[in-house]
Amino acid sequence: MQTLRLGSRGQDVRTLQSRLALIADGIFGPVTREAVMSFQFAQGLEADGIVGPKTWTALGINPYHRSITKIILHCTATPEGRDFTVEQIRQCHLARGFSDIGYHYVVYPDGSVHAGRPESVVGAHCTGQNTCSIGVCYVGGYATDGKTPKDTRTPAQKKSLRELVETLQKKYPGATVHCHYEFANKACPSFKLCDL
Ligand SMILES: [Zn+2]
What we know:
Blueprint: H1 11-19, H2 30-42, H3 53-58, E1 70-75, E2 78-79, H4 86-95, E3 105-107, E4 113-115, E5 133-138, E6 141-142, H5 155-171, E7 176-179
Parallel strand pairs: 1-5, 1-7, 2-6, 3-5
Antiparallel strand pairs: 3-4
C-alpha cells in the first residue's frame, strides 16, 4: 500500500476511506485527514494524519499488499501452434536478468491457466506499469512465420482469458484492463481490447 497524506489520490485512498466509513471518492482531503487523525488517536498511534505501515496495519490491511489498478494483457510472441510452457518462459526471463518469470499468469492454447509470479510480487512485463499491475499472457501471438503479429488465441484460450480477467477484476475492484501495446511500441498481445 502507498503511504497516504493530504492530497493523495487513487485506489489506496478509496480503500482507506471505506475502512473509515467515509465516502470513497479516492481524494484524501481534510475530512479524510480528520478521520485518520481520530482513528490514529483512538489506536494510540501518533495522530499525524499520514497513513503509513503502522496505520495500515491498525486498519486491518497488510501494508505490503500491492494495490492493483491495471490488468495488462500480453502474448508470448511465439508462432501459432507451438507450445510454450511457464518453465520455458521462466528460463527466457531469467536469461534476460529477471528474478523469475515476468508474468503473473499464462494461458496455454488448451485454455489451462498457469501461475507465474505470485500476484503479491511486482511483475516484469510492462515498463513503467509493473508496480501497480498484474501481467497476463497467452501462448501465441505470431503467425507460423514467427514474425507476423496474429491473434492466435484458440476458443479455449479466449474463454479462459476472459474468465481470468473477470476474476481479477472482482479481486481488484476498479482495476482497468489494458493491452501491452498501449504502453509500448509493440503489437503485443496481437489483438485489440474490444476483442478480448
Ligand atoms: Zn507484452
